[in-house]
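Incident review: delayed structure delivery

Summary: a single-chain prediction request sat in the queue longer than the usual turnaround. Root cause was a stuck worker, restarted by the on-call engineer. No data loss occurred. The affected request and its eventual output are reproduced below so the record is complete for anyone auditing the incident later.

Affected input:
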Amino acid sequence: MELITKAELPVGQCEIKHSDTLMLMGSCFTDNIGNKLSDNKFRCDINPFGVLYNPMSIYVALSQLLENKSYGEDDVMQSRGVWFSLMHHSSFSSPDKYVCLDNINSRIGSSSEFLRRTDWLLLTFGTARVYKWNESGCIVGNCHKLNEKLFTRSLLDVEEIVNSYMELISRLRSVNPDIKIMFTVSPIRHAKDGMHGNQISKSVLLLAIDRICSANAGCYYFPSYEIMMDELRDYRFYSDDMLHPSSMAVEYIWERFSESYFNKDTLNIIKSWNEIRRALGHKPFNPESEAYRDFLSQILLKIETLKEKFTYLDVEKEIKLCRTLLKK
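Output delivered after worker restart:
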C-alpha cells in the first residue's frame, strides 16, 4: 500500500557525475543541496554572492559573473559601521571598505572563471517578490536590515522572468556552449506574504521555469517544492519555525535528487566516500596507539585508491590530514 503521494521524478532525463563541475545559486535551499554535493565530493561553487532569493537578483549576479565585474567604491555603502553591497550576503561585509571590496572581487574573479567552464548551473528560485532600491530603481539581492522605506517591494510577472532568462541563457551559451541548467523552486514558504501570497509567488516561479525549460534544450526542472508539499506533508519534516525543511526533509529530498540524476557508478563512489568520511570522524580511545596508526593507514590507503581510480576527486585535504596524524 502506497501511503504517500509521490512527486513525479525526472529519472533518466540527464545525469550528474563526479567528473562534472557544478555552480549553484539561489535561496538558502541551494546551500542545503550544495553542501550535500560538496560533502559527497562533487566539485561545486556555491552561492558566489551569498544567498539570493528571487530570479532577477540571480539574473543580475550571473550577468556580473559573465562580465567579470569589478566592484569599486561606488558599488558599496556603509551603515552602522559596516561596509556592504546590496547584491551580496553579509558574509562579504566588513568594517573596512577595502576588505569588503576585496572579499567581493576575489570571489567574482574565481566564480567568473568557474562559470565559463562549469558543466551544470543549478538555480533555486525562492520567491517572485523583489525589493528595489528607491535611489536607483535597481532590484537588490540583500536589504541588510536597512529601513524598509528605502525600498519598494513588488511581485515579478512571468513574462519578465522568462524574457530575462531567455537572453541570459543565450549569453551563457556564447561562452560555455555545453552548459546544462537545472531549475528548482525552494520548498521554503515565505510566510510574510501569507500562505495564499506565498502560493501566488511560487506559481509565478513555476510558470516561468516551465516556459524557460520548454523553450531551451539542456534546461531541466527538479521538483523539490512538490516533494516537500506532497510527500513530506507532516510537520515533523519542518524545523522549529514550521517553514524551513528539517534536516530529515533535506536528507529525503537529497535522496530523491540522487535517485533522479545519479547512475550506479556515481552512487558507488558516494557509498565508498561516506565509508571513508565516517572513518575519518572516528574519535580514537588512544590517538597514540599502534592500532590507531594502523587504522589511519588503512583509511589513507582507501582514499589514495579511490583517487587513483577517479582522478577528478578532490581529496587532498583528507590525504593531508591522515599524513599529519600519522606523523604525530
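Verification: Strands lie at 21-26, 43-46, 77-79, 82-84, 120-125, 129-133, 138-139, 151-155, 180-185, 219-221.
Action items: add queue-age alerting; document worker restart procedure.
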